[in-house]
From TrEMBL:
PANTHER family on file: XANTHINE/URACIL PERMEASE C887.17-RELATED, XANTHINE_URACIL PERMEASE C887.17-RELATED
Protein name, as recorded: AGZA family xanthine/uracil permease-like MFS transporter
Lineage of the species this protein comes from: Bacteria, Pseudomonadati, Bacteroidota, Cytophagia, Cytophagales
GO molecular function, one term: purine nucleobase transmembrane transporter activity
Coiled-coil region(s): none
Native species: Larkinella arboricola
Length: 438
């Protein structure tokens, strides 16, 4: 059921779209760097990434009317490279074919409303927990991007040295963005990103060394030229036939399952954070959003990249006030120039967008207050879903263990009426996914 769009000013939506783009633009370079390890040309994947992000984000805005950026999914690209191609020895062209057929399967599931039915059977306490867990996950990504939280063999993780100029610049950006946000300053997140970028300019030039925290360069903000020629060599290079071999179905299933729950959790999480619900209490325009997500996966295989999915970083734009499809359209449109201008991405360093990602986590914690923490058979499964998303660095793992724990606890207490048949079916797929090693 489609609903009318919430009231929002054009200016707010444009600022939100810019914010979402700034939070997700890293994928333009990161995705090619991962998929190139699978033997695909860096420039070809970059072109495919830009085209997919532009086309499907605009489609999300125009058709689904939701403020969600669509781009090749992190995690999915790693699975493509390190599990499918390197681990199983699948040719990259065949793996792209598997991506395409996974997208077709998505579309079939969407036509029969299977995916939206899954959202409707997710218990509300788990919805609230997933939203908050994604918020914590985004916060962790922000801290990691800034190298503020680093690995430690003794304690697993720890805070980096506060003497490092990069860390000090990040802290400056975080505090100044906090001040702007709490004062409800228009465009607070964008201004915070701009000020942090300016503050990073001296690093490696007049003081400090950016490579001290493994950024791989002497300077954080660098100018590497303006123009780069698009590479369309991967378009249509997928292997349609060989990707349908029986041995490839576990790979297709892994793409389906992971993208399914990544997208569903994004819709639920953003809906909770921004109250984007229809009159039935489901995420707004859910069926259309899921259809766009399915199209993004199929198109990804055709263009030459890993599956496309809705991005959790879209919450940055929602935090800026984005509520309509215009946010996604603006964000998507900003990808297109980077078919030619990809070298300019080096101007905005990771520590400039990291404060925005960190603060988004706080914006997404509000649903936690709606969980009845005194009702332990609700609270414990919700808690596991919440903490395992950031702790396992996987939205899918958090959802799987939240679902399974909910089912086991409810059945043990004789509350089978709170475990619908649909949830039991999903549980079966969760167990299959666990034992398939993904």
């Amino acid at each position: 059921m489609q609903t009318s769009l919430p009231t929002s000013s054009t200016r707010t939506e444009i600022l939100a779209g810019i914010s979402s783009f700034l939070a997700t633009m890293y994928i333009i370079v990161v995705n090619p760097s991962i998929l190139s390890q699978a033997g695909l040309p860096f420039s070809g994947v970059l072109t495919a990434t830009v085209l997919l992000s532009f086309g499907c984000s605009v489609l999300m805005g125009l058709y689904a009317r939701n403020p969600l950026v669509v781009a090749p999914g992190m995690g999915l690209n790693a699975f493509f490279t390190f599990t499918a191609v390197k681990g199983m020895g699948i040719r990259p062209e065949v793996a792209l074919g598997a991506v395409f057929w996974a997208g077709i399967l998505f579309l079939i599931l969407s036509v029969f409303n299977v995916r939206s039915a899954i959202v409707k059977i997710i218990p509300k306490p788990l919805r609230y927990a997933i939203s908050a867990g994604i918020g914590l996950f985004i916060t962790l990504i922000g801290f990691e991007n800034a190298r503020f939280i680093v690995g430690n063999p003794a304690t697993l993780v720890s805070i980096a040295s506060l003497k490092d100029p990069v860390i000090l610049t990040f802290i400056f950006g975080l505090l100044i963005t906090c001040i702007l946000v709490t004062r409800n300053f228009p465009g607070a997140i964008i201004i915070g990103i701009a000020l942090t970028t300016l503050a990073a300019l001296p690093i490696g030039r007049w003081w400090g060394d950016a490579s001290a925290v493994n950024f791989g360069a002497k300077t954080l903000v660098s100018f590497q030229g303006i123009l780069a020629t698009p590479d369309f060599s991967l378009i249509g290079k997928l292997d349609f036939v060989n990707s349908l071999q029986w041995a490839l179905w576990p790979v297709i299933f892994a793409f389906v399952f992971t993208d399914l729950f990544d997208s569903l959790s994004t819709f639920v999480g953003v809906a909770e954070a921004a109250n984007l619900y229809d009159e039935d209490g489901n995420p707004r325009n859910l069926n259309r959003s899921l259809t766009v997500d399915a199209v993004a996966t199929a198109v990804a295989g055709l263009l030459g990249t890993s599956p496309g999915t809705s991005y959790v970083e879209s919450a940055v734009g929602v935090a800026q006030g984005g509520r309509t499809g215009l946010t996604a359209i603006v964000a998507g449109a900003l990808f297109l120039p980077f078919l030619f201008l990809s070298p300019l991405l080096s101007v905005v360093p990771a520590i400039a967008t990291a404060p925005a990602l960190v603060l988004v986590g706080s914006f997404m914690m509000k649903p936690v207050t709606r969980i009845n923490w005194d009702q332990l058979d609700d609270a414990l499964p919700a808690f596991l879903a919440l903490v395992l998303i950031p702790f396992s660095y996987s939205i899918t793992q958090g959802i799987i263990w939240g679902f399974l724990t909910w089912t086991v606890v409810k059945l043990a207490l004789g509350k089978s009426h709170e475990v619908p048949i649909g949830l039991l079916i999903v549980d079966a797929f969760c167990i299959l996914a666990l034992f398939s090693g993904h």
